[in-house]
Amino acid sequence: MKAWKHHIAEHFEEDHSLCSNNGAGNGATVFTDFTMMKLYLEQTGQRWYIAELDIEEHEMIRLDHGMATILLDKDAVSDFKPLEEWEFQCGRSSAE
Q1: Which CA distances in Å does 33 have to 3, 38, 84?
Q2: pTM
C-alpha cells in the first residue's frame, strides 16, 4: 500500500542530497491517507517535503487520522519533493 513520509522543508532546501536515496526509519510516523496528510500538514503553517513509500500492512501500526508508525527502516520509492509538487503531479487519482 502507498504511504507518505513528511519532513520539514528547510532540511531538504539546505542539503538537496537528502532528497534522493532516503526514506523513513523504524518508528517514523507516516500517512496512509494523502488527503488527511495534506490537511494535517497545512494546519502547521510550515512547508513540507514528501516521499512515497510502499508499505505492507504488517510493517506498520495504524493510528488515527490516516497516520501510522512504521516498524522497520523503509526506503522511499520516490525522491522527497515539496508537497505542492505532489499535489500537482499526483492529483487525487494517484493519492487516494
Answers
A1: 7, 9, 16
A2: 0.84
